[in-house]
Amino acid sequence: GQQVMQIPQYQHVQEGEDFTTYCNSSTTLSNIQWYKQRPGGHPVFLIQLVKSGEVKKQKRLTFQFGEAKKNSSLHITATQTTDVGTYFCAGDSWGKLQFGAGTQVVVTP
Amino acid sequence: NAGVTQTPKFQVLKTGQSMTLQCAQDMNHNSMYWYRQDPGMGLRLIYYSASEGTTDKGEVPNGYNVSRLNKREFSLRLESAAPSQTSVYFCAISRGLAGNQPQHFGDGTRLSIL
For residue B4, which of A43, B54, B68, B106 is within the disulfide window of CB 3.0 to 4.6 Å? Predict the structure, then answer.
């Protein structure tokens, strides 16, 4: 079946630095969603990408969907302490979402 | 998080005990889901309900049962709790059963089984 993998599992970032987290699927996706979960909280929907090569921005967050629709990335510029949390990607699997294991982001002031 | 309400927020059980986790929504969405979240494993789908009156197994259904009581409510039951079911359980909803629908999550139930 479809598998969604995320790397890295952990990301330690100095405040102000940039970083990227990656999501890879074993099969072609019709779309991909990204969620953020703050420590002790619940996942919150961030964005959905549908088109091949699509790029969307939310303030300091840039999301990209690969040309082959099998991978995606999330790039955060000028990381802030408010960016702390776990970022999940999720791909469509027969009408249901298959979540990756997430990238846990720790920000050092 | 008024859209999706989960009860209880915390629960400790002994092995072999049973309990029901409750989920209610006020967003009039058709589809509801139960996930479990374990460290390093992301969210795994236990059961889902595409619409009122239907339920289906997800990735990890063993040891669980569900009931879609009406459009608003979707409950998850553990008949005989086991330590392996210690986890954080999230209920989620979406407008329809489609991978292109954003999901809205409840605050979760933190369940420990001793």
Answer: B106
